Amino acid sequence: MTLTELQIASANAILFLAFGCFLVVAARNGISLLQLLLATWVFATRTKPGRSSIELWRRYGDLALPVSVIAPAFNEELSIVESVKSLLSLEYPHHEVIVVNDGSKDDTLGALIRGFDMEPHERMQIAALQKTQIRGTYRSRRYPNLFVVDKENGRKADAANAGIGFARTPLVCVIDADSIIETDGLLRAAEPFMHDDGRLVAVGGTIRIANGCEIEGGALRRIGVDTKLVPRFQIVEYLRAFLSSRVANAHTDTLLLISGAFGMFRRDVLIEIGGYRHDTVGEDLELVVRIHRYMREQKREYAIKFVPDIVCWTEAPANLAGLKGQRSRWQQGALETLQRHRRMIFNPRYGRIGMIAMPQLILEDVIGPPAEVIGYLVIPAAIALGILDPMMALAFLGVTVLFGTGLSLGSLALEEVQLRRTPTARDLYRIGEAALLENFGFRQMNLIYRLRGIRSFLRSDTKWEAVPRIGFNQPS
């Protein structure tokens, strides 16, 4: 091959990469736009649920199925007492709280014993789904519905499985220990089960960022927006994910993820499938995908729902160091799930999950991040070499920055109309400002973190990086 032919081939390869990256980013944003439009339609046409917890209690107090709230906890000394107080104060006729101390290295167990007057209490497991040793069990002298399990460290999935094994109720709600559920959250989550014909197996809710909020006595006293940019960027991300993507996917029966921060499940189904897997860092995604697979292979009718009016507040990483580990883990977990359930991809046996949801996950988590990073590098290089029209750079900027900002503002508008959890105009401005600024640096850093997760997946690195916590009501 001559030098000229080599130059032509190189130029063609660069052009191919540039246009390929542009198409991938445009496809991802196109799907996001369709989801936003569908979510808007769903919100506009639905029958709004009861506004007050009193109304929900009067309507369902005698119908509510007993629920066990399972809260795995690892190194949560700073916020565990506040979180458990929140769980105990939930407005629900029959619920118990099972806190699983997953071999914490700090004084999480001590904080629980002191804060709730715990004493040793023997209780038999109905199903031993965990892989590690149970070191002790405790019950509160002051709160008969509070039960604590102390076990060796085995990560969140193992801790959740231990709690599921100790539960006695038909429904279990698995949450993060650093989360605050709104007082009517359990009633709203259990409501679909009260009208169910036996098909419903899981319900998810909206996750919101607690950073900047005022938490007192385990309850959300005042909603606020953190002054720091990293938590505010995550507010924007969560609005897009929960009020747009989850609503749309649930409506089309393609929901693959119920957040590990809050989810309600039929306990018998979780036991049937063996609980959470221990060999993945994305146990929440893998669990829901495995439920889909199991139910379809068993040819059983089932449903998985998302209720946006269930709101759970969680502490988000306050800085980039904490965000890095979290996003890398999410990316790695998605790839592990795709690999483990790859036979479902484009397999009509699994219906919409195999033909739509799994391919969409590939676009989002396998093709999307590398393509966008390559686009940021290749398109400017191609323009500098004179082989690509500068308008291409503007088009790429449009589908990444401007289009992304529009989607974020659309999700913020949905939140303001439907949930109204942003109390002041100043807070709305702060979130809107973050929706624009996230495209200049934060979005690109997130891509780097996701590439780091891809690298960990390729290396089969199962190391778990705990997200640093500052605790509720602590300065960021």
Shape: globular
Strand runs, count = 12
Share in β-strands: 15-25%
- The number of distinct helices, counting runs of at least 4 residues, comes to 13
The percentage helix is 40-55%
Please state the CA-atom Rg, rounded to the nearest Å.
23 Å
CATH topology of the largest domain: Spore Coat Polysaccharide Biosynthesis Protein SpsA, Chain A
Ranges where pLDDT stays below 50 over 5 or more residues in a row are: none
Structural class: alpha/beta
Number of domains: 2
Q: SSE order in H/E notation? A: HHEHEHEEEHEEHEEEHEHHEHHHH
Kindly report the name of the CATH homologous superfamily of the largest domain: Spore Coat Polysaccharide Biosynthesis Protein SpsA, Chain A
